[in-house]
Design a protein that fits this description.
CATH topology of the largest domain: Rossmann fold
Oligomer: single chain
Radius of gyration: 20 Å
Distance between the termini: 46 Å
Number of domains: 2
CATH superfamily of the largest domain: NAD(P)-binding Rossmann-like Domain
Mean pLDDT: 90
Shape: globular
Low-confidence stretches: none
Strand content: 15-25%
Largest sheet: 8 strands, mixed
Length: 343
């Protein structure tokens, strides 16, 4: 195979070389979530020469994305382009030799197996644990390697999951964090450097997998806080053998079977969607109101919290049940719930 001048400096790197580049040019990767992490993953994969990339996202570009989502520009935000479409338009400008496939959809238990069935690797660019646990189930079932990543504020973490060879996400995080317990970009903010750091870790591990350099994988859970200047690698050696994980040991795929899924109901005549979380919890609504104040107009009492954002109103009850007013689109409602409530 004749490889173009485009990749000549990458081929000079001993870890990849000519053979590794040829493997990249015969690889197919799915990126689930094309926001901050996903946008940067997509650009780096495209520039590296991954031949086929599937970009999957349910959301559209907003001005609040632009400080950290590097694929997008003001015109895309003005036109409210779907992120998957906008990202692939940008990739076509970066590398017209590769194939990119934008898919605008809500990834859920009905479609995830089809979305990843023909790829070599899956990268996590999502913003919520429910989808990550769903990815974990599907990848273990289909024997697909995937790379977890998360970033908020100045803190991020990532790990590689190779089914049957490494611990899976549920070995490390047995259950989804309770609603409202985990910070989000809309409650704690986020800075671009942590996005770049975690996306870079994910992509370099992806390049190792795709080129067959498995011995060079970091084999741990990487935790980084750039503002506090801290770095930790949690050693996961032996965890797979010790684990009694329902997913990778028992092959019981709760999220793929929708047993752990949020219950969603479109409310008749109210242009609203009700979301009931998959696990019961008790929220401190006053504390949540303090976190959300910078992002929305808030009213709160001991029974409920009501927040107004452009075009929508979200009512949150103390058991984390929520009603999203202003839409009947369950995918949009799920996105707003993940953005502000944090699951």
């Amino acid at each position: 195979m004749i490889v173009s001048e485009r990749y000549s400096r990458q081929i000079l790197f001993d870890g990849i070389g000519q053979k590794g580049q040829e493997k990249l040019l015969n690889s197919k990767v799915a990126v689930i979530g094309c926001g901050a992490l996903g946008a940067m993953q997509l650009e780096m994969l495209a520039r590296a020469g991954v031949k086929k990339i599937r970009a999957i996202d349910r959301d559209f570009v907003e001005f609040s994305n632009l400080h950290r989502q590097v694929m997008f520009d003001e015109k895309m935000a003005e036109n409210q382009l779907p992120k998957a479409i906008a990202a692939c338009e940008r990739i076509n400008q970066i590398n017209s030799d590769i194939e990119v496939e934008p898919i605008v959809t809500d990834v859920n238990y009905t479609n995830i197996e089809k979305l990843i069935a023909d790829v070599d690797l899956v990268l996590d660019g999502t913003d919520n644990f429910e989808t990550r646990f769903l990815i974990n189930d599907a990848c273990i079932k289909l024997n697909k390697s995937w790379i977890y990543g998360a970033a908020v504020s100045s803190y991020g973490l990532t790990m590689v999951i190779l089914p049957t060879k490494t611990p899976c996400l549920r070995c490390v995080f047995e259950n989804i964090p309770p609603p409202g317990s985990a910070p989000t970009c809309d409650t704690a903010g986020v800075i671009l450097p942590i996005i770049a750091m975690i996306a870079s870790w994910q992509v370099v591990e992806a390049l190792k997998i795709l080129t067959g350099n498995l011995d060079n994988l970091h084999k741990g859970l990487i935790q980084v806080d750039l503002w506090q200047s801290t770095y930790t690698k949690v050693n996961l050696q032996g965890l797979l053998e010790r684990s009694d994980c329902r997913a990778c040991k028992e092959h019981k795929f709760d999220f793929l079977a929708a047993e752990k899924r949020q219950i969603m109901t479109t409310l008749c005549g109210r242009n609203s969607v009700q979301i009931v979380p998959s696990q019961s919890t008790k929220l401190n609504l006053v504390e949540m109101a303090e976190k959300l104040k910078p992002s929305a107009e808030i009213t709160v009492n001991k029974f409920l919290l009501r927040m107004k954002i452009p075009n929508y109103e979200i009512t949150v009850f103390s058991d984390a049940r929520s009603i999203i007013h202003g839409t009947k689109d369950e995918s949009l409602a799920r996105s707003l719930y993940a953005k502000y409530i944090g699951v």
